[in-house]
Model the fold of this input.
Amino acid sequence: MRGLLVAALVGCGHPAAAIDSSGGGDDGGDGNTVDAEQLPGDGPLAMDAVIVPACPTGTWCQEPAPPGVSGIIAAVWAHDANHVFAVGDAGTILYRHQNAWATMTSNTTEALRAVWGTSASDVWAAGGNGALVHYNGTTWTPITETTVDINGVWGTSSADVWIVGPSLAEHWNGNAWSVPGQPVPGGTLQSVSGTSTTDVWTCGESAYVRHYTGAGSWGSQIKPIGNDSTFFAIAAETTHVWVTTAADTARLEGSTWVEYTPAGGPSFKSLYAASTNDVWAAGGTKVGHWTGTTWDVEMPAPVTTQQLIGVGGAGTDVWVVGTGAMILHRD
Done:
């Protein structure tokens, strides 16, 4: 019945390797340099690309951001382990390919806070003041649709994409944006996820949880945890839906929401569900991993005061991103 969302984690202490633009590099990522000309044709990779050092399986390692990237990296989305996009402050878009991170030209200077796509050549990024850009495999193109902050983006195909924000829930059908499912949920919507065109979920600050089934309207307010009205993230997978609050999580099991409080009560701000018993969450200085019965919560060794904001992945690869250009990865 469902599908999901988002990111990765930190540091084994190896120095970042620089691009050798003179040639003679190694595009497999196993050496210390890589020829810029051998980097992917999936999109424009800047000459500031840096190689990601190898990381032991099952360990969180920090990955180096390109030079000059120092602010918040807020969200990450992976098509697969070889095509990963991360977005952040001042229009920052990073692309991980051939074991290297590089900056891309986003054509916006707004803070980007959400990213999602269907492939490495069909990706959406969104953020402050209605910033919305689309990547076609070559160029990021700005889209003018709204002036309010866009906090979440998700879809099922290139002709089925949702964006959410303050009293905002708009849909792209491949040709035009519209506002289906009246009335639009109130409050500041922060997150959107689902599994199909008729199974879409959203939540946010003073917004509760809402469900769209394609019947022409969003369902009534859903209260998964007591009378809480503020939820930070939502993620749907094949059989369940997860939501997070300031210190708790809940999962929809059949028709019943069941609370699962993480040890230490961390405030998870994002979710990524690889499968029913493989769900990741990030927030504060903590990362949570659901393996079927409880949340295993840890503070990755490289994290001290950095705030972890976004989580996403593909298969067994998971990335977490946050303040101070933090990028963490675990395989």
Observations:
- The radius of gyration is 19 Å.
